[in-house]
Design a protein that fits this description.
single chain; about 230 residues; alpha+beta; 5-stranded mixed sheet; two-stranded antiparallel ribbon; 7 strands; about 50% helix; globular
Length: about 230
């Protein structure tokens, strides 16, 4: 526990220290973009700087969020939530990216609505991370399924299942994929930090839920469970 606490504190401090000079770099790139520069090579260099600094900023933000989430150092604003409404909003945000990859999304939601007690901001991030994962790693031209249901009455749980077919062969266990900085594509050809699933799991547990990952061949399945709110 002491080692884990030290590692988390180190990540937070280093991320904060990196963020200051990175903000300066981003600001200077913005200033350069406002200049009347016509040289094609310089414009190309600026585009690379702009893109990579934005990518680094996202990585630092993910690092800091992963650190806070794993230690429970985040505020939870509890509210009664209709899961279907929030998930529909998140799916709408990803419609363009899903279409671009030829992914057909099939959502099976219950009627009447299912309610859980959660933090809307944290739950949005969980869904957002899982949808990002699908857009990055799902096989082009396949179907993606999201199923929501309330489990047996005595369980008093809500289940939300995300399923997709992976574009790359998954020669890695579910346990390893849940670890920080581990990604499904060992070649690391896609952009990503390998923190998405870890953050989603930490935030889910912070809201008294569970996140289970199952890998069966090329089938990638994430099962979320939250206490049912009456």
């Amino acid at each position: 526990m002491k080692s884990e606490h030290f590692k988390t504190e180190l990540i937070t401090n280093v991320s904060h220290d990196i963020k200051t000079p990175l903000t300066s770099i981003i600001n200077y790139v913005d200033l350069m973009k406002k200049q009347d520069i016509t040289d094609a090579t310089m414009l190309e260099y600026m585009d690379v700087l702009d893109r990579q600094s934005a990518r680094l900023k996202k990585l630092i933000e993910d690092l800091m969020e992963a650190s806070k989430a794993s230690t429970g150092n985040l505020t939870v604003n509890w509210e009664k939530m209709d899961v279907t409404v929030l998930l529909t909003q998140v799916v709408g945000e990803f419609e363009e990216r899903l279409n671009a990859k030829g992914l057909e999304l099939i959502v099976d939601s219950p009627n009447p609505p299912i309610y859980i007690r959660a933090d809307g901001r944290h739950l949005w991030r969980v869904f957002d991370n899982l949808m990002n994962n699908i857009c990055k790693y799902a096989q082009t031209g396949t179907r993606v399924y999201i199923n929501m249901s309330s489990l047996a009455p005595e369980a008093n749980q809500v289940s939300i299942v995300f399923r997709n077919i992976s574009a790359s062969q998954l020669n890695i266990s579910s346990e390893e994929l849940m670890e920080r900085f581990v990604r499904g594509d060992s070649s690391r050809n896609t952009e990503g930090s390998g923190l998405g699933l870890s953050i989603a799991q930490s935030l889910t547990e912070l809201m008294h839920g569970t996140l289970e990952l199952n890998v069966d061949g090329d089938l990638f399945k994430v099962i979320l469970q939250f206490p049912l709110e009456g």
